[in-house]
Amino acid sequence: MEIICLNCDLSIFFTFILLLGPFLFLFITLNLIPRCDQTEYLHHNGTCVACPVCKPGEQLSGDCGFGYGGDGVCIPCEAGTFSTDTSVDPCRRCTQCNLLNRLALAACSPTSDSVCGHCLPGLVPSTAPEKTPVAFCY
To answer: Which SUPFAM superfamilies would you find in this protein's record (predicted)?
Structure first.
């Protein structure tokens, strides 16, 4: 006499669905959503779109890339910062010549960094051989 379990196949199926269902859902969902690169945001239509590119002297008003952003606009660099390239990169801090103990030849502007000159009077370059205690410039 053979015992046949009609519900066994269904119980195995439902156990499988209950245990693996959430992972299956995540797998399907993650593969349906496009993966945007570092200079793209996910548009509301489901496609990856290039982030706005700003001209020299500007930066995006918010982060953009890897699927996020998209609502950013180009704004001028803040005081003490600059950008020289057309890009999605933020503005960089200006070099402070006085902290390097050097003369400032040109001030920082929104589109260019400061230009530092020679050492301040009485200082020697940090690459000079040290014979006596001296103050260096960098």
So the answer is: TNF receptor-like
